[in-house]
Design a protein that fits this description.
The chain contains five helices and seven strands; from the N terminus they run αβαβαβαβαβββ. By secondary structure, the protein is an alpha/beta fold.
């Protein structure tokens, strides 16, 4: 797995074989970042179920200002920290080792808001409706911010954000919501 565009193009991201991770394939990532390209520069990003950090690193490579990486798996956290050190981007990142509920609470308590949020939880969890509602209730997404979801089934029922894209890639869907509030 590698970074496909931007400042760190070609950099290999290790950790794709960590048990419980399901990295976004390069062709899906390329299409996704083609869609959100104009929303990345100088933005604050959250990769809530970061795994290897694949999506967050791609955003940083494309000039995101800052990225928060969160994952509850310590093996993933260690790989993310190693990649941050290799890319020499410590000042543009923060890494959290929490479950998603505690992470969302942390961001709310510290008044941290995002322009771009990646949500790619383990498929069997089916928690995105709950998470997106919490993002709204805790006011964690800025106006015109995007929430990018990766799911294997279309179980989302979100009516308070505008759906700007839904596309199937093999056995998964990418759905992008925009906060117009």
């Amino acid at each position: 797995m590698k970074i496909i565009s931007g400042e760190f193009k070609g950099k290999i991201i290790k950790g794709f074989n960590i048990e419980g991770t399901r990295p976004t394939m390069d062709r899906v990532k390329e299409s996704l970042f083609g869609t959100v390209q104009n929303y990345i520069t100088d933005r604050t990003v959250l990769d809530l179920f970061a795994g290897t950090g694949n999506l967050g690193f791609e955003a940083l490579s494309n000039h995101a200002k800052y990225c928060y990486f969160n994952d509850k798996n310590i093996k993933c956290i260690n790989f993310i920290k190693k990649t941050i050190d290799e890319l020499n981007i410590n000042e543009r990142t923060k890494v959290l080792n929490m479950n998603y509920n505690k992470a969302l609470e942390y961001f709310a308590n510290n008044n941290i808001k995002f322009d771009l949020i990646f949500l790619d939880p383990p498929y069997k969890m089916e928690v995105l409706n709950e998470i997106i509602k919490e993002i709204k209730n805790k006011k964690l997404i800025n106006k015109n911010g995007l929430i990018i979801c990766e799911v294997d089934t279309l179980y989302l029922n979100i009516d308070y954000y505008e759906k700007i894209k839904e596309k199937k890639y093999g056995n998964k869907y990418i759905i992008i919501y925009k906060n117009n509030l």
